[in-house]
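Quick one:
INPUT:
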């Protein structure tokens, strides 16, 4: 078989008579169906076949194409095509492909025909291992918004475009339309393209079933770059691309890298009330070109990778001469493509997403982007795609799911490949377990769907990942969820109240802002203050029976609750029995709900030193143990002798503090156990000496910390510089978003000036993190605990 090259295809199409038939083998694929639309736009009759009828085939049939279900030589012969097109997914022994060879009908690969059509206009190719579908779709959408009437070919459905491909015509023959196209490198056809402009997003160890090694992949991209006659826009954050293209004539870099020609500077994150995820974030960012600001831009897509890809489109459009303000308006309303963070279901309980990601780098980026949107947990179901990819990237797959709270892996989707002995989903699951992450292997999609549903709790964000047919399981689960109905909240409240003693507090829709020191946050579905340890165990049992998530709330310091509140049950150990402080000799027996200030004052009254540092920490004993809270150079577990705690089944345990592992700002034990109390040890001293030390600490605290409502220190201290000092040196003191402000007193405090929302605080946190990363290369990590979810979109 000797397939045609793009030049030969162009000549053949030029010589063809009007309505000349073409035949697509595998017509239902996104790329192939797009070719069908392009050929129809050019006036050809389109025939073809595929194994199943899908939405792509239905769209082609609606335009007059004749697409068969199944492959037979007779179908192809009857069509009498001038050209046969096939994709890399079609095996060489396909009956229609063989018939075309025997009849000496010209045969062409999908990408070669696409390249031939692109060369008729001003081609703008988007290439790279990850993100090219979304980026090409954004480029096409933006050109459409800019009234450029572009041609385009995108490898997925784009809800904001009428179809995934279009060949535009123009009356002005002197100025051919732009043609935005996703150029695939997977089968060595990238070099078929000779575009006027190109975007290269990244290069990675991918498609090693075709390429000998990564070096061969790089050679393919170098060849593609040499064939690009106009601007070559590449990501400066990709070290390999920087090495390949930094000195290339006509190359323009973009990214977060300080040396990028188009440099990104993230500004803030705000709520977008129209996004398909509902209450979706809209990331605002600035772009600087050659030291001059092009203005502010925004994207509705989630994560830094999508911000970077949006900048690539901005850079290309700027190079083409479009006005920056018009570019900003053009990209701002783009909502993405199908199967890229696509929401299938959302209600007050769950959000279910479907995503095409199948490479470790894509998976990691997607999970990181979704991290801030999740409610209580992120549940991930993954279907590996191709045996060769699974074998070659096994080590990367083993570590890319770190952000998942629950993980399932199903069997490999072959994608026309022959099986490879020893390469399967079970082996991938074993590799993930080898990295210390829990994972379940579920061999079939029907079992996978049932397993995920059984594990789901209200507040969960559920993600189905993979390029194969796992999307069917995702859609089936979405249909199942839509049929379910949740028990009315009033009934649940009544049943919960009945299960507890009359001394417990039980409320619905409880405002949580008043229960945090920052004074922001939404409501809890249910709020409970159990009167005793027995009532606490009863609450845990009720939550387990009703599959309700629960959250333990201390005194609300070091905590940021999102504006959508917390789903399920919020438990606060504030009742007298669980908040007691009793002195026995030189030891204090404290309930988990006891205020740290109360413990410090009681120690002073009984002449016990060593606990003075607790007086100024606005939290509870339980919360201080969970966070290993500290102040004035001392830490909670330095004074804890023993602890008492409850597991989630309601069983009570006691342990010496010396037997408990603690770390900076954390005690891992309390990630899945509930603190009930502790014995704190003091040293006998004169009460006046203790009082003097407490007064000194108190004076120092109010001189160095703001008096306005705050959550305490927002960030953990990096190893190289205290977070407050870093923020001060970056000139961020006084920076404001809404009612939230970086304190002028201490840079590591964000204060509520009276009308702040949680979103204001989160936006401010994001600005600080971005500035620290861009200016100093420091990744700031939040010390404050962030809980809850964004508010739902109003209808």
């Amino acid at each position: 078989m000797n397939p045609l090259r793009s030049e030969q295809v162009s000549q053949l199409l030029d010589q063809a008579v009007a309505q000349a038939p073409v035949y697509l083998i595998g017509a239902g694929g996104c790329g192939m169906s797009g070719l069908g639309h392009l050929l129809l736009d050019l006036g050809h009759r389109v025939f073809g076949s595929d194994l199943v009828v899908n939405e792509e085939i239905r769209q082609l049939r609606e335009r007059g194409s004749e697409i068969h279900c199944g492959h037979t030589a007779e179908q192809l012969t009857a069509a009498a095509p001038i050209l046969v097109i096939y994709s890399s997914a079609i095996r060489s022994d396909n009956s229609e492909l063989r018939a075309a060879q025997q009849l000496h009908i010209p045969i062409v690969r999908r990408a070669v025909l696409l390249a031939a059509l692109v060369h008729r206009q001003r081609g703008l190719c988007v290439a790279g291992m990850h993100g090219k579908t979304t980026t090409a779709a954004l480029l096409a959408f933006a050109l459409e918004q800019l009234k450029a009437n572009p041609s385009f070919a995108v490898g997925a459905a784009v809800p904001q475009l009428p179809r995934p491909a279009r060949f535009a015509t123009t009356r002005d023959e002197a100025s051919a339309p732009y043609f935005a196209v996703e150029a695939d490198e997977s089968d060595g056809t990238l070099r078929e393209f000779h575009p006027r402009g190109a975007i290269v997003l990244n290069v990675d160890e991918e498609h090693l079933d075709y390429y000998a090694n990564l070096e061969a992949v790089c050679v393919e991209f170098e060849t593609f770059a040499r064939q690009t006659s106009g601007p070559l826009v590449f990501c400066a954050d990709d070290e390999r691309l920087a090495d390949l293209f930094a000195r290339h004539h006509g190359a323009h870099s973009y990214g977060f890298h300080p040396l990028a020609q188009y440099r990104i500077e993230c500004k803030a994150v705000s709520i977008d009330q129209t996004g398909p995820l509902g209450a979706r974030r809209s990331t605002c960012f600035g772009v600087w070109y050659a030291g001059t600001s092009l203005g502010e831009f925004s994207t509705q897509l989630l994560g830094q990778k999508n911000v970077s890809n949006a900048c690539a489109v901005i850079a290309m459009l700027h190079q083409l001469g479009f006005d920056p303000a018009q570019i900003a308006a053009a990209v701002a309303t783009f909502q993405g493509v199908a199967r890229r963070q696509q929401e299938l279901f959302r209600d007050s309980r769950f959000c279910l997403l479907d995503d095409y990601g199948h490479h470790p780098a894509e998976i990691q980026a997607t999970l990181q982007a979704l991290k801030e949107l999740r409610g209580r947990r992120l549940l991930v179901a993954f279907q590996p795609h191709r045996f060769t990819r699974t074998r070659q990237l096994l080590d990367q797959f083993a570590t890319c799911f770190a952000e998942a709270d629950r993980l399932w892996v199903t069997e490999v989707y072959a994608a026309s490949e022959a099986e490879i002995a020893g390469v399967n989903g079970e082996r991938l699951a074993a590799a993930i377990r080898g990295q210390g992450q829990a994972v379940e292997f579920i061999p079939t999609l029907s079992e996978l769907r049932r397993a995920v549903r059984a594990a789901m709790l209200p507040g969960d964000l559920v993600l189905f990942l993979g390029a194969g047919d796992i999307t069917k399981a995702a859609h089936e689960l979405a249909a199942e969820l839509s049929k379910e109905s949740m028990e009315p909240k009033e009934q649940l409240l009544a049943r919960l109240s009945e299960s507890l003693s009359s001394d417990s507090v039980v409320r619905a829709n409880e405002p949580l802002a008043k229960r945090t020191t920052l004074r922001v946050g939404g409501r809890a579905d249910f709020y409970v203050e159990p009167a005793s340890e027995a009532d606490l165990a009863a609450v845990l049992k009720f939550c387990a029976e009703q599959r309700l998530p629960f959250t333990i709330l201390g005194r609300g310091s070091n905590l940021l609750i999102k504006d959508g509140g917390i789903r399920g049950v919020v438990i606060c150990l504030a009742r007298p029995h669980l908040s007691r402080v009793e002195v026995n000799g030189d030891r204090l027996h404290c309930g988990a709900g006891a205020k740290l200030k109360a413990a410090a004052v009681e120690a002073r009254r009984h002449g016990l030193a060593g606990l003075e540092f607790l007086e100024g920490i606005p939290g509870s004993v339980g919360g201080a143990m969970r966070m290993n809270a500290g102040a004035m150079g001392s830490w909670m577990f330095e004074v804890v002798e023993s602890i008492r705690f409850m597991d989630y089944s309601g069983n009570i345990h006691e342990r010496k503090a010396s037997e408990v592992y603690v770390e900076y700002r954390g005690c891992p034990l309390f990630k899945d156990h509930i603190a009930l109390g502790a014995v704190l040890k003091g040293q006998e001293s004169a009460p006046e000496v203790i009082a003097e030390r407490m007064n000194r600490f108190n004076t120092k605290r109010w001189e160095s910390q703001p008096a306005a409502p705050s959550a305490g220190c927002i960030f953990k201290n990096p190893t190289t510089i205290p977070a407050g000092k870093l923020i001060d040196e970056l000139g961020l003191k006084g920076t404001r978003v809404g009612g939230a402000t970086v304190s002028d007193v201490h840079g590591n405090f964000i204060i509520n000036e009276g009308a702040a929302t949680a979103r204001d605080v989160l936006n401010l946190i994001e600005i600080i993190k971005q500035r620290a990363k861009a200016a100093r290369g420091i990744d700031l990590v939040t010390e404050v605990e962030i809980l809850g979810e964004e508010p739902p979109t109003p209808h």
